[in-house]
Design brief:
Elements (H helix, E strand, L loop, with lengths): L1 H10 L15 H40 L5 H43 L2 H35 L1 H15 L3
Length: 170
């Protein structure tokens, strides 16, 4: 059936040699862009709410870490409280990670609709290459400076000894 359909389409294919202007309905793309933008805005709001909650949980953890409790019951309660607090912090971090991944997927879809996906991907790749180059250059400069100091160490020691001898007057 599939082969028959293929051959039917192949032999009935009519080459369009007209030079007429073809109009496309672009309102679908704009409504899709608007929907994706609204979803991104909603995700941004959720990210801000989760970030605030995560910061509050970390502040509570910080305060409970440095609070002094001498009572045994308070110590047991503090341990239970810390485990629940750690669970809460981990949950918020997981939610933030998921939200950022969903937001990134929506941004990629929006870039594909706008037709700037590959341009942005090339920009990101060039940015990563540039950052890597500067890190490599900085590491190379640091190591070469370190090697220069090691090779100049006998000269530095000699200058230091001459300085000490000249300062010591008999």
């Amino acid at each position: 059936m599939l082969r028959a359909n293929f051959f039917l389409k192949f032999f009935k294919f009519k080459h369009n040699s007209s030079h007429e202007i073809v109009q496309q309905n672009v309102s679908k793309n704009f409504t899709l862009q608007d929907q994706i933008n609204k979803k991104i805005i909603d995700i941004d709001k959720e990210i801000s709410e989760n970030s605030k909650a995560l910061i509050e949980a970390q502040i509570v953890k910080f305060k409970s870490t440095f609070s002094k409790s001498n009572n045994l019951i308070q110590q047991i309660g503090k341990n239970v409280y810390k485990t629940k607090l750690e669970d809460s912090i981990n949950w918020h971090q997981k939610q933030l990670k998921d939200l950022y991944l969903r937001r990134r997927e929506l941004e990629i879809n929006l870039e594909k609709i706008k037709g700037i996906f590959w341009l942005n991907r090339i920009k990101r790749l060039l940015r990563i290459i540039l950052i890597g180059f500067f890190m490599f250059l900085g590491l190379l400069i640091f190591l070469s400076g370190f090697m220069i100091i090691i090779y100049l160490m006998p000269l530095i020691i000699l200058i230091f000894i001459v300085y000490l001898i000249s300062r010591k007057r008999y």
